[in-house]
Amino acid sequence: MERFPEFVANHLFLFSLLIAILTLLMWNLFGDILSGIKLVIPDEVTRLINREDAKVIDLRSQSEFEKGHIIDAINISVDQLGNQLDKLKPYKDKGIIFCCTNGSVSSREARKLMNEGYEKVYCLKGGLLAWENASLPLTKGLK
Q: Are residues 48 and 60 in the same domain?
């Protein structure tokens, strides 16, 4: 421990990389929590749908949506979300659950929706991959 400052001085580039990687890791793990986004696991999503009448918004493309989606989900692709916010207004008080393939897109879009004044915004943690891994049903085709 006495030679730690010497080690840092001799390997400043590597030590800087270590700090950067640790910072990015912390942001990856806790960034959504710090931004106020509520990540929910598949079991919690079913509870929100059944008890609070929350609506699932699938942010994937229409072709991906047709291959399999959560029952009664609405498909609004990420490109169209900004133009179709009026479709979400009826669910503002009930809750909106965003889902995508793996959860990364839905977190970003949930932040945008929260900036628009929506409070009950949730993201399916792990996306539809987590939903499928929990052996929960998907339906195919358009709705």
A: yes
